[in-house]
Amino acid sequence: MFTVQTKDDEMLTVPQTVVDQCKTIIDFKEHLICDNYLPLPEITSATLKLVIAYCEKHHVDASKIETTNEGSSTTPASPKISDEELSNWDNNFLDMKKSELHYLIRAAQYLRIEGLLEVSVQKMATILNRSPDDIRVTFQIKSDFTEDDKEELRGKYQRWLSGFRVRWF
């Protein structure tokens, strides 16, 4: 568990399963800039609660993983959750106002949660009918994937990606 202070001055306790997926918090803890809590001046409590919900759903306990088809778009499937169920959950989860989705994208970028960033950018691209690369340019988001990573993911998730009108990469 780790405590954070949001933009609206709310103190929230973040479960370890979520901390493990947030590279920014991991880096912060390693350098221990502040003993008590981490200030998140860019993220509201409402947005952070969405981030926590996503990370809890996508948390993988390696000791409890059952083999499923292929995992979700950017993170492995949670224990006993099929790819289709996780994909449906992601779609329902991301069914929100554009402004909320924008804040979620910014939070995912700030906290460096690659899986959430990718699925939320894809959702925004679908909403705006633009390619994810165009959305990244608009919101000044750098892709964390190299060209080799993209090719590997395209091959691995081609069947799942074929349902989208917009290119994933």
The assigned CATH architecture of one domain is 2-Layer Sandwich
Radius of gyration: 16 Å
As a percent range, the share of helical residues equals 40-55%
Average pLDDT over all residues: 81
Strand content: 5-15%
Pathway: Protein modification; protein ubiquitination
Subunit structure: Part of a SCF (SKP1-cullin-F-box) protein ligase complex.
Keywords: Ubl conjugation pathway
Family: Belongs to the SKP1 family.
Give a quick set of tags describing it.
169 residues; 9 helices; 3 strands; SKP1-like_dim_sf; SKP1
Q: Can you summarize this structure?
A:
The chain is mainly α and about 170 residues long. The chain contains 9 helices and 3 strands; from the N terminus they run ββααβααααααα. It starts with a strand and ends in an 8-residue tail after the last helix.
Explain how this protein is built.
With 169 residues, the protein is mostly helical. It has a domain at 45-161: 2-Layer Sandwich (Potassium Channel Kv1.1, Chain A). Helix content is 52%, strand content 6%. It contains nine helices and three strands. It has helices spanning 16-19, 23-31, 45-58, 83-93, 98-111, 114-128, 132-138, 147-156, 158-161; strands spanning 2-5, 11-14, 38-39. The chain has a three-stranded mixed sheet. A hairpin with a 5-residue loop joins strand 1 and strand 2 (11-14). Helix 3 (45-58) crosses helix 5 and helix 6 packs across helix 7. The longest helix is centred in the last third of the chain and has 15 residues, at 114-128. The radius of gyration is 16 Å and the shape is globular. The N and C termini lie far apart (34 Å). Residues 62-68 have low confidence and may be disordered.
